[in-house]
Design a protein that fits this description.
6-stranded parallel beta sheet; 8 strands; 5 helices
């Protein structure tokens, strides 16, 4: 089986436990790297062509506008090979996944693909993201998501850093 970890993450200022904090790595990126350490799978970072601002509130404003406009932001790159399994990581914004993830999935060859979602959030769980994935990838099998609260991710990263 050919597998990959594809993730979208925002570093810089993020909301963690209801407070805005600066993160060197975004929460979803931390989880993606943890999965990669255990699984030895390659990582693919989903990145929009235009970088988002570090300022958390400006960033939220842009992502909210993208959602309202049902935008499909152009990405820096897409998967060029077919994968049997994709571990798909993203934060929950506005009750679903960021629009950059929509762009990624729209271009994905979803035939015979198993998607394992892992979603980071600050209390919003995964919202409508599973339905949205199924709409964009109707031929894919979507497994039960791993839903991770951001507070637990920061604690887990600290534990992991001290043990390495």
């Amino acid at each position: 089986m050919k597998s990959v970890i594809a993730y979208f993450s925002h570093r810089g200022y993020n909301c963690v436990d209801g407070k805005v904090k600066y993160l060197e790595k975004g929460n979803t990126e931390i989880v993606a790297h943890m999965i990669a350490c255990v699984s030895h799978l390659p990582l693919f970072k989903i990145e929009p062509e235009s970088n988002y601002p570090d300022n958390f509130y400006e960033y939220l404003n842009i992502t909210q506008q993208e959602l309202a406009n049902k935008a499909y932001p152009q990405l820096k790159g897409y998967l060029h090979d077919h994968y049997d399994e994709i571990y798909l990581g993203f934060p929950n914004y506005w009750g679903t996944m960021p629009r950059a993830v929509f762009s990624f999935l729209k271009e994905l060859d979803d035939n015979n693909v198993v998607i394992h979602p892992f979603i980071t959030h600050d209390g919003g769980d995964y919202g409508s993201s599973l339905t949205d994935i199924k709409t964009l990838c109707p031929h894919a099998t979507i497994t039960e998501p791993l839903s991770l609260k951001c507070t637990h991710i920061c604690t887990s990263q600290h534990i992991l850093d001290t043990k390495l």
